[in-house]
Amino acid sequence: MNKKYSKLTLFAFTIGAVLFMSNRGGSPGGRTGSTTDGSTCGTGSGCHNNVNTQVIPQDMISSDIPETGYAAGATYTLTVNPKKAGTSVWGFEMMAEDAAGTGVGSFANGTDVNTKDNGLRATHKFASTASTDEQTWSMQWTAPATGMGDIRFYVASLAGNGNGNTGGDDVVIDTLFVSENATASIGDLTQIAIELYPNPASNFINISGYGNSNASLSVFNKLGAELMSVPFARRIDVSNLPKGAYHLKIVNGDMAVTKNFLVL
Hints:
With 264 residues, the chain is mainly β. Helix content is 11%, strand content 39%. It has two helices and 19 strands. Strands 1-11-10-5-8-7 form a six-stranded mixed β-sheet, with no helix packed on it. The protein has a four-stranded antiparallel β-sheet with strand order 2-4-9-6, with no helix packed on it. A hairpin with a 4-residue loop joins strand 7 and strand 8 (121-124).
């Protein structure tokens, strides 16, 4: 009985190691944790899903997309920089989705980045093999030509311990919410010096530089979920919002602008 158990255990570890090694050249796809994917390489049906696996939220996405939002058809640089002490093998997968959960835009192949699904996804070209506490990938993303409204970037990064199997490997996750800059229409608002204060805030946010009573206000969290929608006011109560980063969107007809603020 013990001998049979040992063989089964060895077989399972071998399969796990083969799956792990086979993905050193990029994610198999569908592992960003997005609305479409649902899981990462360490959750759901991911091959690194293990009782010891940790899913670690971390602020690791940065971009040169301006605060006013992305412009349809424009190309931007996104950087993924996960960190976890004691990691010896890193990998990642990233995609962008619109509000309906549809993949949008197009990533480009790079020095250390490959694309999948006709550019809808980006992943590592090869996994790191030297022990390091962090890793960085940079990639080019071109926004959809017609514009798709608000977009969320999803990324999941594998932090592997390099022990030859999937046990003890962790996953670092993050999202980035960006709004669409509707070109000339948004320019009418962005030319106005709209400011939020105090920022960071704890009780109220005041809006200066704009005061059209026909406008509306919406507040979104980092994941892009709308938490508040009210008629325009120069002062809004944010005391019930948890500590964190938020986006305030001012909309007036076909004009809109998004400003960022923090709640402490």
